[in-house]
Structures are given as structure tokens and as C-alpha cells.
Amino acid sequence: MHEETLKEMARQLRQPHGEHAAEVGERMNKGNQEINLLTIQTLDAQANDVILEIGMGNGFFVKDILSLAPAIHYIGCDFSEPMVEAAILLNKEFINNSQAKFFVASADALPFESPTFNKVFTVNTIYFWDNPASVLHELKRVLKPQGQLLIAIRPKEIMEQYAFTQYGFTMYTKEDLSLLLEENGFKIIQAIEAQEPDQEINGETIKVGSLIICAEKA
User: Fold this and answer.
1) Which of 24, 63, 131, 202 has the most CB atoms lying inside 10 A of its own CB?
2) Where does the Methyltransferase type domain start and stop, copy by copy (predicted)?
3) Which residues contact 133 (CB under 8 A, 6 or more apart)?
């Protein structure tokens, strides 16, 4: 595949934009379905939880979170305006019922008071954090005492199979991510690794796996 095509793929995955934003959002829903559903299961949302998601895309999986228990309050933040607009359209019922809100915001500058949330999670976004320590400081700020943070990724050995990840992606092993969290004020609770169905990309079969690190605000 041409280098410029790979670079544009990387840019779109980082921040969906322009005329292809909606298509990118749909592709992410399909390609990331397994890791999203596993993360939501691991989140173990309970009644009255106040949950923040960083990088929810078009908000397709919000319904799965809110169905887990009554009186869950969900907030989604994304720095892609088209994704936030799509999430608002897709989740109008939940917004009208005061169950969900969506904001255009960067992960290192969240528009919330501290502390607000008892659970924060993010799926496949940490690759794009220019300053991970700054983001984790901000997530720690908005978390309540003993609040939980879940970070879900494709491990480095999986991500290295994709040609576009050489452009602007920072990849992590389980050990890398665990150490990063520990160095920035989080206590590791558990690490979950799961094998997903193989994916076919450009005629090649790619092995796919998920990693979820669950941590607690120390």
C-alpha cells in the first residue's frame, strides 16, 4: 500500500475528520467490537456509577454500557468533532433521559471538576497520547478516591503487524503499560489478555488480541 495512504489511515484513526469520518467510525465499530465488548464486561458497571469514556468514537457501544445497570451516568469525550456529533445523534434517547452526555475535549484537558468519576475507561486511544503522563495526571484528577481506570489496547506484538502503525502510533507491551500506570499514581488490579478472531487485511490474515489493564487511583 502507498505510503501516503498508510499515513492518511493513521491520521484518520487518530482523529476521524473530513468526508471520510463517518466511514472511519463505522469501520472502528466493526474492527473493535470484540475489544469494546470485553472492556465493557470488565468495567462491571453498577447502579449509580458515573463513568467517563475517552475516545468513544460515534458512541455505538454506549447502549451496551447503559444496559448493564439502572441509573448509570455516562459521559463520552472525543477530540474529533465529527465523532462527537455522530455520538449525539446516535444516542439522543439517552441524552434526553439524562443518562449520557458527550463533549469535544482532549484527554489532557478535561472539562470536569475533580473528583467526578468512579470509573474511567478508554479503548485503543493511548497510542496517540503525545504526553501519556499528562493524560494520566488528568484522569487521576477527575477520578474519585479508589476510582478505577481501564485501558484497553492491542498489544505491541499485534500492532506491529499493521503497516499504518509506523506513522504516529506509540505501541505498548503489557509490561510497558503496567509500568506507565504505576509510575503515574495507579495501582494495578489485574491484566486481562484475550485472543480474538483473526482479521483479514489486504488479503493477509492477521492474528488479533486484546489487553486490558485495570488499575486503581492510588
Assistant:
1) 24
2) 52-151
3) 180, 183, 184
